[in-house]
Design goal:
This protein is of the alpha+beta class. 37% of the residues lie in helices and 32% in strands.
Amino acid sequence: MIARLILVQLGPGRRDDYAKVSIQLKPLLSGAPGFAGAFGLIDDEKGEYGVFQLWNSQEEADAANVTYGPLARAAWAQLPGAGTPQIREFEIPDRSK
């Protein structure tokens, strides 16, 4: 399993802007093969917002990123003052072994 952490700087008090983009992007992910869920992340005081995505495999995460990535970057770029999204990935070890 893969965890993908995406963070973007918008500036303090931009919760409503974050929500608009999240609502716009959510349907794009929900039907993607291998998508296992996501959680929104908000630090309204510091102005940092993001999403924590779970994927069944690296291959499925990468395949979804081909379509989803450019759409997500374009959505964030429409917000005045938005920074470039920072993306990190982590392997989630199989604890059953």
